[in-house]
Structure formats: structure tokens, C-alpha cells
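Sequence only, no structure available. Ideas?
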Amino acid sequence: MSHSKKIIVILAILFALMTAGGSALATDLIIDDLNLSGENCNTFCIPITVQGFSNVAGVELHLFYDESCMTFDSVSVINLSGATTNVGAGAVHIIWEDYLNPLTLTDGDQLTQICFSNISAAPDAPCTFGFQATCELADEFGDPFPLTLTDGSVACAGGCCVMRGDINHDGAPTIDISDLVYLINYMFSSGPAPICFDEADCNSSGTEPLDISDLLYLINYMFQEGPLPGPCP
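Reply:
I predicted one. C-alpha cells follow.
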């Protein structure tokens, strides 16, 4: 073999070694649209599923959600044992790596799921939930995978209302003093607004914002044997 041919072969081998760790196939991370109803709107988890997830050794997920629409509860890592999570304003961050034991999942498997406590969206205004552009997956060499991200949404059929008078939206079976305190705090002490307007609209007027008539209706029911707040719309 001539000297020039040897150089070409050596360069070809070096190039192959340098690119061996690269990942050519794209991996999909998917959040499906979630449609809820009734009490399922109080506590729910949003799964993140995968397609083409093979020999992944590093995961960096950055997700956003509408915190005015739903309340963060927890992260269930499922297939990312030992992952670290961090939650900020309207964002969830999940970091995992194991370069000695890369992870392969079947298409459709859940990678992780994010759980929430409440939803205040109406059917025509679903809550948004999705990926930030800085998400990354890496192989065992630390090289990034081509990545496709599909955002989703969450909607509550019939609205968020389960029981009128449940001002603090805790799902308790009866109206209690904590609901009254929540409403007073909101109206007179700059406390947080009720999560679900229809549940806090005690007199069923449909008028926004809530006013003193809703508070008086609740007090009358709790202490003067007044009528129970009406059914949800």
C-alpha cells in the first residue's frame, strides 16, 4: 500500500472513531392532550412518553406549565431512578444521568410524569404544558441525540367545579370553616384568589368578580341555617 493510501486509511479510521459516539436517530418526547372531568380535575398526573428512546445515558428536561391554571404537586420519575428535580415559577426541571448503564425504553413507555393538584381551565381554554427548547438527551459518550418535542394541554370537561362553596378547592366532602376563612382572606386581606370561580360563586350569580353577596350567602348557610350553595353549572 502506498504512503498516501495509508494516510487516507488512517484518517478514515480516526474519523470513524471520532463519530462513533454520535446518535443519528431522533428521539421523540411526547406530552399527549389530557381531557379530564369531575373529581379527576382535582388531582391528576401528566405522562411524558417516548419514541425511539435507545441507549440514553443523560436526560435534561425543562418543562413549563401555566401556574395560573393548575397547581404543581409532585414529580414521579418512573424510569429515571435517582433523578434530581427542581421546581420554579411555572417550571419543572429534571436531571438524570447514568453513563455506565444507558437506558432503553419501548415506544410508548412513560419516561416520567408530572402531577398537579387542581385545574381551573374551562373546556374552551385548556391549560398549556410543554417542553422548553433547552431539553437534551445524551448517549453514553455524552453526545446529544436529535430530539423532537411535542407539547400537550390539559382540559377539564364541564369546568373545574365539583361542589359550590368549596372555596379553597381542597375536595373536602363538606363546606367548612377553612372555606370561609379563605374567602374572607381573599376579599379583605389580599389573599390568593379562589382556584375555581364557580365553586366560590356561592350565590350562583355568575357575576365576576366575587363580591360581598357571595360571602354573606356562605355565612348565612354556615351559621343561620340558610340554603346550601347551588349545584355546579
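The longest strand covers residues 110-119.
Hope that gets you unstuck.
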